[in-house]
Write a structure and sequence with these properties.
Layout lengths: L2 H12 L3 H20 L4 E3 L3 E8 L2 E4 L6 E4 L2 E8 L1 H7 L1
Antiparallel strand pairs: 1-2, 2-5, 3-4
Amino acid sequence: MNKNDLIDAIALHADISKAAAGRALDAAVNSIKVSLKNGEGVTLVGFGSFYVGKRTARAGRNPRTGDAIRIDAAKVPKFRAGKALKDELN
């Protein structure tokens, strides 16, 4: 499922126009991005949680030349599925 398919599904289930569904999806995604950028987690009960993880600096290797390189520390977005979502899949 891609973004357009998701917009179609939202419009169908919520009985709203595709344009309104697109705006709603964009607003939800942007709200999640802003919360994560501010270091806050987002929990959707029954679905899961979005949170910011930390990746430490580490040594790597350039695959083209084989030279050692330093990979900087980074913040990465992560998702943990909720129990209801896990139960739905099993």
